[in-house]
Amino acid sequence: MKRLLLRLLPARAAAQITVIVIGSLVLANLVTIGALIVLLPSELKRLPTLPYVTELVAVARQVQVAPTPAARQIIVETALSANPRLSHLSPDARSTDRSLKKPDREMVSDLQRAFEGVAEVLVLDSTEGLGSPPPVGLRFSDGSGLAMAPAPMTPPPRGAAFIVYLVVMLGCLATLVGLLSLWAARAVASPLSRLAEAVDRFDPDRDDIGAPEQGPVEVKRLAGAFGSMAARIRRLVDDRTRMLAAVSHDLRTPITRLRLRAEDIPDDRLRRAILSDLALMERMVGGALSYLREGRASGTMAATDIPALLQTICDDFADLGHIVVFEGPMRASAWCDSDQMTRAVTNLVDNAIKFGGKVVVRLDDGDPVAIAIQVEDDGPGIAPDERDKVFEPFYRGDQARTLKEGGGFGLGLSIVRAIAEAHRGELTLAERPGGGLLARIAWPRRR
Prior knowledge:
The chain is of the alpha+beta class and 447 residues long.
């Protein structure tokens, strides 16, 4: 039952709070109405009978203390003209023989004690029906008398009218409470939405965390905790980057010394093997430094002519004898760091050349919001279960496991993905139609 109710609730917090408040109030009112209908004593389900009896007693007291019959007559005529529910008691009027309800019996007993020896108390038959209070009359010792009828009662709605009344009442209540609850819920949920947006935008390289400390105390504490956590993450990333960069940089000095010492080795075969290993180590250190450097967010974003950038890259590879062609529009502009984007596309083309023959660099300019660069080759491609793994630093597929010359160190795609993410974009790998690999970098046109 609980799971069913949770499924019926809307997804947003403000809507959930509103539904819960409205549902609780409507349910509380229905329970109250049911309890009144079932448990309320029948004598309390009609209007009180006391007010009109009090008016009759007040007039009777005035008549009782009048000094002369003429004064009594004036009081009676004045009361009759002032109150249309007051009338002369008929000489042949008799008390009703029907059973009175408990409040009416108690009222008659009180009147009889109050007017004992002065007037006779009569409970008359009602012309409004059995459910309405009965008229009350007083016959004085001289034979005259007064009768007071109750005010006409408005009958409660019954049947279809009662259902319409109940629906309208609950509808008005739900509308009013719903509007107020929605306003209050939005005041609580809006800071949470803004905090969620700040979390989505979180970047360790940005100085501005952007978590608004607004709303209830709990939301403010959550925003403050997120800000502190973001600052710790940023310090951790900075410390890691500085440490790895320092280690990679410091390794260059002993590698250089070892290369100079290796030149003095008389054995030519051993000297070449050691120099080859040292060159491999230097390339690995250079790749690590590049990964750390390119993985940082760019601070030189500017409007760039993307076709010109891609055509330059293709021409550079063509000059080295590779088949690299550019396909796409000749004019298209987007915001990017031209140096980083050049490095990313160069890495993709370099990977494509290693495993394929012809490479096509294609520019997708059809989306007005985003722009994309595709690098396609006709090589063996990458298996679907390997495509996520190749983004990990130093990971190499089966075809590049050996550290042979030009084999790479598994940092190229990691660097490209870091550059794409620094541009608020992404790098995806897919199978090229007809065989081969299709690498795609997509990022927003504007910052």
